[in-house]
Write a structure and sequence with these properties.
32% helix, binds glycine, seven-stranded antiparallel beta sheet, 24 strands, alpha+beta, 20 helices, eight-stranded antiparallel beta sheet, leukotriene C4 gamma-glutamyl transferase activity
Length: 583
């Protein structure tokens, strides 16, 4: 069997549009060409620096910054400002993000948490009706109620303060120019508007921006200008994050969110005035010759990816290979075990205690012993990791839908930055202010606070950060960055990132092939297999092992860079519009 994707979105010509990129070898054993029906993205090689993100215009802005001697931090600011314009449905200054950073001078990896916070006026019952029943998901999402305090502008400023080399205001120029002159609506943005236009139409600023004069979704290729966003960026460029969190922009957001008649929110100026990016130690799993480092709580990303790989490393995946149903059974069951712990234990540890032993070698060995090769687990429950202080908690009940965007950057000094950035749902809360969309991140909390009398770790509390699945990752080898990777996709992020790591570290695929290979993942029991790919042929065997299988679109948006033998090798997900550029 050749294991390959058969459908995709973007042509190779986009990837090789700059002579500054070196196109490396195409995907080999897993090449879509093997399936005969797809244009594949090619591995990009460079020597000095590299940037990968979800939209060519954003990558071009980051590339120009790096080419001008800017740092990874500088490049992020430029990429994020453009992404918020050209891929507004996924991330932007109305949302939040997590950054994993390797500081080449200090030879140290650290993380920055710019997750949105629950408003100080929010109560744990924000998504509960008076009779205690919980809101339907989209009734909670659409409107002001779901909007948390945005963290992205504070992150841009924080990262620039840590290691910005170019002037802050210069980093906004590409986005301001594009917003002023206009950009062509991309196929992906046009498709997203079309799918979401009914809810976009509910809010005047949103409707005016994303729909045409007759109320129809903007078509692909439409020249779209955003003078309000240009003005907002000009203000941030001249006043810094201070100008976002204090003053007119914050006041406008608060007023907009609170004045939505049928679903108002409770965000206040105090939330903006007290918002802080938190630097936290990276969460790392020792893995063979590597350390897989990522974002700890309030994200479940690094812990859950870490548990999956910490369990699967007890099996010989390398010799089973990627076309083995048994390998995927082991990965799927490891993932189910990890998701059981995630649901029970993982949340914002500034608010709830969490076991300390979730990545203990001995604990993961006992979890691995539950797996029988060739036979799916008949039941899965949270384990009993080491606690400093035990508490009884109920399993989580939050719902998560795919969204979000990932950026991987390595600069000429060897600093590496892995950032996953989001406004949560596609188009977030659908509410716009000052030319950008506001997040619906609060719906990443469990809507219920208790289950059968026991508290749920990821329950909503004022000031708390909702649990995330975002898994920006930096793999270290000999304490130096070796791999920079991440993906959007809601709770499927964890499966996408695990797949890319296993494909490269165990199966020796280059970064592009590891990203392109079909997605297969299991979170809560059902085995999701990517539609239109040769992985569908594994379905019968997985079913015979005891899994329920669902064949569906699995739109990861992996962007990754491998650093090896003094060179950079980058890959961008063929399922989305991203590219890689390097020099
Ligand atoms: N809202 C997506 C995530 O944080 O996982």
């Amino acid at each position: 069997m050749r294991f390959a994707i058969k459908t995709l979105a973007l042509s190779v010509s986009l990837l090789s549009s700059s002579g500054l990129m070196a196109a490396g070898q195409a995907a080999d054993a897993f090449s879509p060409e093997a399936a005969g029906a797809i244009e594949q993205k090619k591995l990009v090689e460079a020597h000095n620096f590299m940037v990968a993100a979800a939209n060519p215009k954003a990558v071009e802005a980051g590339y120009a910054v790096l080419k001008n001697g800017g740092s990874a931090m500088d490049a992020y600011v430029a990429v994020q400002a453009v992404l918020g314009l050209v891929e507004p449905q996924s991330s932007g200054i109305g949302g939040g993000a997590f950054a994993v950073y390797y500081d080449a001078a200090k030879q140290k990896v650290t993380t920055f948490d710019a997750r949105e916070t629950a408003p100080l006026e929010a109560t744990p019952e924000l998504f509960q009706h008076e009779d205690g029943t919980t809101y339907k998901f989209y009734d909670a999402v659409i409107g002001g109620r779901s909007v948390g305090t945005p963290g992205t502008v504070a992150l841009m400023q924080k990262l620039h303060n840590v290691h910005g080399k170019l002037p802050w205001n210069s980093l906004f120029e590409p986005a301001i120019k594009l917003a002023t002159d206009g950009f062509a609506v991309s196929p992906r943005l046009a498709g997203a508007i079309s799918q979401t236009h009914e809810s976009l139409a509910k809010f005047p600023e949103t409707a005016e921006y994303f729909l045409d004069k007759s109320g129809q979704p903007l078509a692909e290729g439409t020249l779209l200008k955003n003078p309000k966003y240009a003005n907002t960026l000009k203000h941030i460029a001249s006043t810094g994050a201070e100008g976002f969190y204090h003053g007119q922009i914050a006041e406008d957001i608060v007023n907009t969110v609170r004045s939505i008649s049928d679903n108002p929110g409770v965000l206040s100026l105090a939330d903006f005035q007290t918002y802080k990016v938190k630097e936290r130690p990276a969460t790392c799993l020792p893995y063979e010759a590597f350390d897989i480092c990522g974002m700890g709580p309030p994200s479940s990303g690094a812990l859950t990816v870490g548990q999956i790989l910490g369990i699967t490393q007890h099996f010989d995946l390398a010799s089973m290979g990627p076309e083995s149903a048994q390998a995927w059974q082991i990965i799927g069951d490891a993932s189910r075990l990890a998701f059981a712990d995630r649901g029970r234990y993982m949340a914002d540890t500034d608010f709830v205690p969490m076991p300390e032993g979730l990545l203990d070698k001995s604990y993961l060995a006992t979890r691995a012993q539950l797996i029988t090769p060739g036979k799916a687990l008949s039941s899965v429950a949270a384990g009993e990791p080491r606690w400093q202080k035990a508490v009884v908690q109920a399993d989580d009940q939050s719902i998560e839908f795919p969204s979000t965007s990932h950026i991987s950057i390595v600069d000429a000094e060897g600093n590496a930055l892995s950032i996953t950035t989001t406004i949560e749902n596609g188009f977030g809360s659908r509410v716009m202010s000052n030319g950008f969309l506001l997040n619906n991140e609060l719906t990443d909390f469990s809507f219920a606070s208790y289950s059968e009398g026991y508290p749920i770790a990821n329950r909503l509390e004022p000031g708390k950060r909702p649990r995330s699945s975002m898994a920006p990752t930096i793999v270290l080898k000999d304490d130096k960055p070796y791999m920079v990777v991440g993906s959007p996709g809601g709770s499927r992020i964890i499966g996408y990132v695990s797949k890319a790591l296993i494909a490269h570290l165990e199966w020796g695929m280059d970064m592009q092939s590891a990203i392109s290979m079909p997605n297969m993942l299991n979170r809560f029991g059902i085995y999701d297999i990517e539609k239109g790919t040769s992985a569908e042929s594994l379905a019968p065997e997985l079913e015979s092992m005891g899994f329920d299988v669902s064949v569906k679109d699995l739109n990861s948006g992996l962007q990754g860079i491998v650093i090896e033998n003094g060179k950079l090798y980058g890959g961008a997900d063929p399922r989305r519009e991203g590219i890689v550029m390097g020099d």
